[in-house]
Amino acid sequence: MHVRLGRRGDYAIRSSIDLARHCDGEARKAREIAVAMDIPPGFLKQVLADLVSAGILESCAGPNGGYRLARPAHELDMLAIIDAAEGPFTVTRCVLRGGPCDWALCPVHDAVTDVHQAFADVLAGTSLADLAQIDAAIECGIDSRPARPHLEPTARRGIRTWRNRTVLEK
Asked: How many CB atoms are closer than 10 A to CB 108?
């Protein structure tokens, strides 16, 4: 079973982490977020608009405008960010690939629903502050969590700028 965010959810999480890492009160420009998090600028503006509509971000117009978190990072969770970008996190199709769910009762429905709820609970229990702290530790090379490697090769890409320090990552 593969669990993946769509591009909207991916970019919403990445941009939110960037804003949590730069929560010094000043608004951050969309182009700064796009460069730092390796997100296409045109698509990022659509995602940021979704997050503003959901009350996760605030936008400010003008030469000093940009985006900032609408609430403290510890009050925002992954599930709310994903829901804002991709729509409600719900089970809409049978995992049996169109199999016996035309039956009155599906033999796997309860198990899948329980797994889905547990997954949603973990996302809801993971704050944006948690993600920003982990991201900072990874960037500084001091992440002490046990390694859980990706099953497929991944890479953090882009130019990451944090507090007067630029890190090129490939």
From this structure: 14
